[in-house]
Amino acid sequence: MSKLANTIKPFARPLAILGGVLLIVAALLPWVTFALNSGKYPDLATLQFFDAPFAVTGFRWHILLLGVLVLIAVFAPIPSKGRVVRSLGWGGLAVALINSIFITTEGGGLGAITAADGNAAFGGIVGIVAGIAVILGGTGIGIELPAKWKVKLSTPLAYLVLVVTFAAVLFAVAQTLTAGGQGGPANPYAGGLFLSFLGFAAGLLTALNGIGLIGWISELSEKHRVFSVVVLLACALLLPFTNAGSEYWMTVAANIGIYAATAIGLNIVVGLAGLLDLGYVAFMGIGAVVAANLSGAAASKVGIDLPFPIAAVIAAIIAGIFGAIVGSPTLRVRGDYLAIVTLAFGEIFTRSAQNNIGGLTNGANAIPGVPPLDLFGKEFNEPLNIGSVELPSGVLYYVLIVLLVAAVMAIFANLKFSRIGRAWIAIREDEDAARAMGIKTGKAKILAFLVGATLAGLAGAVFAHKNGTVSYESFKFLESVTLLAAVILGGMGSIPGAVLGASLLFVLPEKLREFSDYRLMIFGLALVLIMRFRPQGLVPDRHRRAELAGEDVGGVPVDEVHEHDTKGATA
Amino acid sequence: MSTPVLEARDVSMVFGGLKALQNVSLKLDEGKVVGLIGPNGAGKTTFFNCLTGLYTPTTGSVLLKGDVLPGDPAKVTTAGVARTFQNIRLFPSMTVLENVMVGRHVRMKQGPLASIFHGPGYQKGERAARERSAELLEFVNLPGIEEELARNLPYGDQRRLEIARALATDPAVLLLDEPTAGMNPQETEATRQLILAIRETGVSVVVIEHDIKFIFSLCDSVSVLVQGQLLVEGSPEVVRRDPRVIEAYLGKPPDEVEAEVQAMVEETRQHGDAAESTTVLPVVTDPKPEGEQA
């Protein structure tokens, strides 16, 4: 890489400027030569652009913005210039590549993005060339570590910055969630547009990281921790008031939240204690089954109807007990052997639930009709009116789940910086040395399983009421693997990582409905690539980052992954 | 005669057909430093593993202050025997301070619930552990690097961090397995001063080492292990004059060794009470370890 950097050093700036200009040009060029079979590629991507030149939207607007930012970055006196420019280049390349590949595969061949029917549409190709030029230019300018800002702020000013930041985060989350719209037959382009948006957002975020803004703000929020937590929670609760505030998006967000909470629980077992658990979702299943049976649903085998908080606690405790039981072999087995034990446990749960062994799961018929939660007579699946504002149904579940995720996060963070948390990390690092330090490793490992399983059981109880049906199909091996992938993708031992990982892995299936045949392949490819280029995960924990990243803490920008996503989809 | 703080009685360890240790006995009096020397494969580390509960001796027993130690490293550490490892075994991805705080584990009272909810007891205990750990880092001369990751420390500092971590368990007995392996003469000297300072605090020490001069100038008594059997034990003067030891181990005329040891003993006397202040080290520039002997 450094050899390459030296070769292009003399041309770095002109190359970056050329790339930036080309990005802008690409945004203004047509991208598709003819209307695609499933309908016009979104908005102004066809030649019709010239009918309305000022209404640039969607990915073209993103490309245009990236191009302008590249030019600003090259000419403005900013720190870590090379890194910022390179990040923007990756963003541009990702957007151009994703859209080009998408158009090619959806619309019928290379003709769609070159020349056909007497029309020419080279936007995509120019965009790809521009992206590569900017990346090379950035590399040639020189990749330094992300800049560190020394600016100190007075408390009120710091609060203001944090509020503005979290408001921006809220806006970005709402935009990301709704990007591309609801996937499905009615909207075949949702997946491509969503991935394209992810590429753009990732490019922008890594650029902000390079310039030092993200590091500075995270330091700031670390300093004002309580305030940040409160504002962040408030922002999360305000999501229903944004453009994501429809029933569909609330449901998607709530589902993500349930899996995020479960992933954080798994992160205790895998990320902190270093115990590979391949059957984790079974604990969520146990929690769901217990809650369903105690809910008074017609199909439940236990004829009692307990209030939800009590049922949830019982579900969590029973899941925790199973966690301790599964954890007990960990006294004897390590590493690969433990993974097989947990894998077997997961299978035992699915099979016995499927065949209704024990008579509590109703087998293949599932347990339907789990009543929705209610509070003061208000059912959680109804719309909510606050004054004159009507919020869509599902909002109350969303709020409940946000609180659940917040609670699980707090538990995780508190445990991590405690006596038992240090013991877990020590076991992960070197079990023999940990024992020599007086840590009762057997007890500690069982405790890790117990806590993780309890949290999963709690999430399962909410899952049962929210979905209304509890079937063994929701708790199969694949779900365990996806959860594990979410933890590793996001960054082991890191809370934001687990949430981001869970969000990506559970929102992508919603968006990529039209790719359903390729979905798993995309996941697989994404994981392989992340493990190759960013083994520490997208938002790594401080410890893991140092362990796996070596010198260049920034690693490879995340957008590279999304770009490969589409390659996988079209392979 | 008071009870020895640590006593091994006729410890034997058999792996399959291999007799790694045969009836090895050792007595360690309070506030003393005992050296354990012997050729590679003599069973020194195996003996350490028996003392710390990592191995359960096939026959024989280990007593701390007259009580038989359980065969479990965690319980042995709780009882008051701490150790370092021949090949450094820190927790590489934890910070320096966290490494030492893991050592405080057995002396902290913090249940799972306190860990989850961070109650008032948590804050107090955590602060105390943090302060004690910082103190120990100061003691082993590693101040000001609490937030560094252990993996990023130079070799010599890692050795000293391991000692600080072991000391954090408030041990009565500290077992050091080749604490100067791979060190240059200055570092070795600093380690010797550190061990003397540890002895000053009332902790008894057992040291495995190949560096004969280091052992003879440091220890109050020396045991020689050859092929799993105790060959000789006694004061350094007795051991280094023993013809069997000279033949089996030293390979140098006794007078020559004597002269070198005298020089080092003299040096120690000159440094005298200022043992702690002399642990100041030059910056370590060569963290390259020697080839592992295991």
From TrEMBL, chain A:
It is a multi-pass membrane protein. This is Amino acid/amide ABC transporter membrane protein 2 (HAAT family). The chain crosses the membrane at residues 59-78, 90-114, 120-145, 157-177, 189-214, 226-242, 248-273, 280-300, 306-325, 337-354, 395-415, 446-464, 484-506. InterPro entries: ABC_transp_permease (IPR001851), LivM-like (IPR043428). One of its GO terms (molecular function) is branched-chain amino acid transmembrane transporter activity. The keyword Glycoprotein does not apply. One of its GO terms (cellular component) is plasma membrane. It comes from Umezawaea tangerina. It holds the Pfam family BPD_transp_2. It is found in: Cell membrane. The lineage of its organism: Bacteria, Bacillati, Actinomycetota, Actinomycetes, Pseudonocardiales. Keywords: Cell membrane, Membrane, Transmembrane, Transmembrane helix.
TrEMBL record, chain B:
GO terms for molecular function: ATP binding; ATP hydrolysis activity; L-isoleucine transmembrane transporter activity; L-phenylalanine transmembrane transporter activity; L-valine transmembrane transporter activity. It holds the Pfam family BCA_ABC_TP_C. One of its GO terms (cellular component) is plasma membrane. SUPFAM superfamilies: P-loop containing nucleoside triphosphate hydrolases (SSF52540). Transmembrane segments: none annotated. Residues 6-252 form the ABC transporter domain. Residues 268-294 are annotated as: Disordered. InterPro entries: AAA+_ATPase, ABC_AA/LPS_Transport, ABC_transporter-like_ATP-bd, BCA_ABC_TP_C, P-loop_NTPase. CDD domains: ABC_Mj1267_LivG_branched. Keywords: ATP-binding, Nucleotide-binding, Transport. It comes from the Bacteria. GO terms for biological process: D-alanine transmembrane transport; L-alanine transport; L-isoleucine import across plasma membrane; L-valine import across plasma membrane. PANTHER family: AMINO ACID ABC TRANSPORTER ATP-BINDING PROTEIN, CONSERVED COMPONENT OF ABC TRANSPORTER FOR NATURAL AMINO ACIDS-RELATED. This is Amino acid/amide ABC transporter ATP-binding protein 1 (HAAT family).
